[in-house]
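User: Quick sanity check before I run a bigger batch. Here is a single chain. Can you write out its predicted 3D structure?
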Amino acid sequence: MLRRGLALSLLPALVALAFAGQASASPSRFVYELCDSELPGGGIPEAEFHVNPGVPFNPFDTCAQPGGSIGITETGSAAATFAYWSLAVPPPPGGFVESEAISAVAYGLGPGNDHTYVYENGWPSNGYGESKRAFPEHSSYSYFSSGGGFDITMNCDGNYGPGCGAGPTVAAHYVAVTEVDPKPPTVGALEGSLLAGGVLRGHQTIAAEGADVGGGVSRMEVLVNGLSAGSPQLATCSVVAVKNTSYEGITAISPTPCPPKLKSGWTLDTAAPPFQRGANTVQVCASDYSSLGEANRTCSPAATVEVDDSCAESPVPGGEVLSAQFAATHKEEITVPYRHTAKVVGELADNAGDPISGATICVEMHTQGTHHPLRPVATAVTDGQGHFAYKVPPGPNRKVLLGYRHDSFQVGRAIRYYAHARPRIELSPGQVERGAEIRIRGELPGRRAGGRVVVLQASSLHSTRWFTFHRATTNQDGVFHSRYRFDATTRPVTYRIRAVVPRQDGYPWEEGHSRPALVEVRG
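Assistant: Done. Predicted structure follows.
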């Protein structure tokens, strides 16, 4: 008869694994073994022996010895009596025992021992050596019955002559139990500087606690943009490797082999993959324990963090105060002619005002009027007095950021470079008669030159006054066309024609004009 109501004390619990992804669709399964000398203390099962006083049925429990077992031996003559071991196997908290694989032996049985068995009558066969069987238990969790267990029974039927003599033995060992943990682990609130908000850079921390009410938490892992970042943190679970007739592989020595909670933390370098510049998703994942298939796993909701490590890191620490200005103006902005450079000078010091030498200064630029972010273009290095210099190359209006970064600390100074535009203009022909027409073609410099207004002006050769005669608009390539007819000219005159580009939203240049083109009008 099977006894399942026995009160059992659970073996110590240890930790399991946390993985990435949403909660698993299938439960975790693992093997929990009893009565094997490879287990600590032999994995002696919690069991009770029942027999009437004075009956020569002696129980034994040698699970801690190599090849040992738990069973019953008849040591003398008996009739019309029986004894049994009642073993109970606990499920994981909230889970159930799915099946039990048992190795058993029976020998020396007489006709009166016809109901001597392990688990169910008829097994094991008398005198045929050790055999293994697997017995199903439960397919789902039930509050009233989710555990496993079995009886080891020695019987002597008084209907057979004088009864039973000494020597019959029945025993079992290597009880390999398939435990099922249907509940996924949980992940607590995320903590750490990685979630502090704002723009992050350098090394940042993140931590969370995983919990599981079944087999425990075996692994914690952090994901960045869906990929593993840092090293997974593994729990020390109570498991051993075994090899016997019932099972070969990794087995738990408790229904809760891993810790019910596992707090894990990481320090991550946001400048290294899988981080990327801009928005990144971050999750912490926990896995419970499984030795049969994949573990149940749960990830925290994805948190979005903003990362910008574009400023090259300096190997020299200590910089706190950074200055930068244009050498020509000693100011943080300058306006230069078309295709002119501008020298920037600056200094890096600590909080006490002492210079920081050998430090890397990053240079990033952004063309004004565009939606593109700052992008790295160069670096400079401070000299023995903490000074550095950089020459802004010719080009359109730009924001220039000079920065110093050491790990997560960064300081920067933004300066602005402005340049006058210089369109190109061509006239055809260069000589015309009075009343004739010229064709005017021109082009604006740089990108974003399409759809821009161009003012066409004229002046006599030696005059300082210009008059506007037409407004043109560039096509998508920044090219403009116009015509002009000299109806009012009555005498020979040489005119200068130029194109003026006013300052316009979205066009990253200051107002400028072309070099004048000449046209001779014969009166």
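The first strand starts at residue 28 and ends at 34.

User: Great, the batch can go ahead then.
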